[in-house]
Structures are given as C-alpha cells and as structure tokens.
Design goal:
about 280 residues; alpha/beta; Rossmann fold; 2 domains; 4-stranded parallel β-sheet; 9 strands; globular
C-alpha cells in the first residue's frame, strides 16, 4: 500500500493512525525496536527542513535506518526515474519522496513493490495533513464538527486539507484569489477571507510562493496581501501553518507568536504521525 494523496485512507484508518501517533508521542520508548532492521530510503528532488529531519529522526527512534538521496548527488536526475527506483527498492523496505510533480510520485510508486509515501508534490502533501489533524485533535479533543478556514493559495496543502477534513467530519472553508482555487472541493469556496473565517476553530495558511513558483513571485505579491492572517481574521481560532512561514507576508508576527499559534506543535507532530504511518504501512495495512 502507498500513501500518495490521503484519499487512500479511510476515516477509520486515519483514526487508527492518529491514535498510534498519540501513543508513540506519549511513550516513545515502547516503540524503540518496532522497525528494527528496516530501511527507509528518502528521495529528495526538492529541498527540505522538517520533512527530512522528522522522517530520519522518526525512523531512528523506531530502531530502523534512513538513507538520504537527492537528485544532485545521485543519478536520479539523469537516468530514467523508474529504472533508478527499481534498483533502490532492492535495498529498501519503504520509500518516501519529496518531488516537484504528482506524476513523479506516481512513477515512483508504479515502479516500486515496496510502500511509497508522498512527502510532498505539487498537488498533495498527505504527511503534513496527518500531523495537522493530530495537532487539531490534541488541542480540541476531537475533529468531528470543527471548522477549519484556509486562506491563501489553493495549493498542495490546501488540496490535502480538504480531503483530510472531509474524511474526519470537519467543515473546511477556503478563501483564495480568483484563479488560485484548489483542485479539491471544500465546503465553502470564496474570494473573501472574512467570510471564510466565520465560526472557524482553526485558521490555516501557507506561503504565497512555493518552490518552483519563483517566476510568479512579483505577481503573487500584488494579489495575496488581502489574505494575510491578522489578529482580526484569526479571532478566537488556533493558528496553523505548515512552515516555513514568511512573516509579514501570509501571517503577521503578532499571530504566529501568539498563544493561539500551534505551529511548532504541528511541526513536532510530523515526526509522530510519520512514525505511525511507517509502522502501519510496514506491519498492519
């Protein structure tokens, strides 16, 4: 089984995974040998801070080993990708890949007989959203019936939030500029951020310019300022961001540094959610 979009998991599977992640966070020592002798190969076409660190630390904590490979120091960017994956899988028990296009992650999964995890592509970011759901549930004690408002670019994070929230019984409102709507369908899609945050328990945003969109930066900087998360827009909700955050652009310092901000809990929970995911893919699903 692979995890490429989050659509692969049922509500029950996500709930099982989050319960395991909670347990691993509470008593990590109980899982120190769960994946003893297992090898995770980490493939990075795009650079990373949290994804690499959380996966590598998580695999070590489970008793396994992680191997880091990027496109520049290997043949991944030169040879046929499927051929390279067919070789790499001979050395691995599980793989994760952080790539530019969804087509690349599909090619990797198609070439591998071992489980493949999408650690980010242009359309989906399932590992981030598993950590987000874990964080929201930690804060509120539930997911069912809550409302999340997403402001900004209808990107990979937004697409996967829509999938995750709907699966777990949450309402999701999305406010984007015209022409920047997500692929997936939220409960409410609007161009008005004030409309999106009404009744929200969570307000979420992401960078306005993702890796690979640098040529659009000047244009985007003129379009997105009305979607900046301010104290006024946040209201009484908790604030979430997948990081890195560009302070003064998509969010103010006042918001990200406030007591309502859970961005660093969210970042930590990447490791716990991914540990649970790897165990589930290798041992239970």
């Amino acid at each position: 089984m692979d995890l490429l979009t989050l659509k692969e998991l049922t509500r029950e599977q996500i709930d099982e995974l989050l319960c395991l992640a909670d347990e691993m966070k509470r008593v990590p020592e109980n899982y120190y040998e769960t994946l003893k002798g297992k090898i995770l190969v980490m493939l990075f076409e795009k650079t990373s801070t949290r994804t690499r660190t959380s996966f590598e630390a998580g695999m070590v904590q489970l008793g396994g080993h992680a191997i880091y490979l990027d496109w520049k120091s290997t043949q991944l960017g030169k040879a046929k990708l499927a051929d390279e994956i067919k070789c790499i899988e001979r050395y691995a028990d599980i793989m994760m890949a952080r790539v530019y296009t969804h087509e690349s992650i599909q090619e990797i999964a198609g070439a591998s007989t071992k489980p493949v995890i999408n650690a980010l592509c242009d359309k989906y970011h399932p590992c981030q959203i598993l950590a987000d759901l874990m964080t929201i549930r930690e804060h509120y004690g539930k997911l069912e019936g809550l409302t999340l408002a997403y402001l900004g670019d209808g990107n990979n994070v937004c697409n996967t939030l829509i999938i995750g929230c709907k699966k777990m019984g949450m309402k999701i409102n999305v406010a984007t500029p015209k022409g920047y709507e997500p692929l997936e369908k939220p409960d409410l899609l609007t161009n008005n951020p004030k409309e999106a945050v009404k009744g929200a328990d969570v307000v979420y945003t992401d960078t306005w310019v993702s890796m690979g969109q640098e040529e659009e930066k000047e244009k985007r900087m003129k379009i997105f300022p009305p979607y900046q998360v301010t104290k006024e827009l946040l209201g009484k909700a908790i604030f979430m961001h997948c990081l890195p955050a560009y302070r003064g652009l998509e969010v103010t310092d006042e918001v990200i540094d406030s007591k309502q901000s859970v961005v660093f809990d969210e970042a930590e929970n990447r490791m716990h959610a991914q540990k649970a995911l790897m165990v589930k893919l290798l041992k239970e699903w």
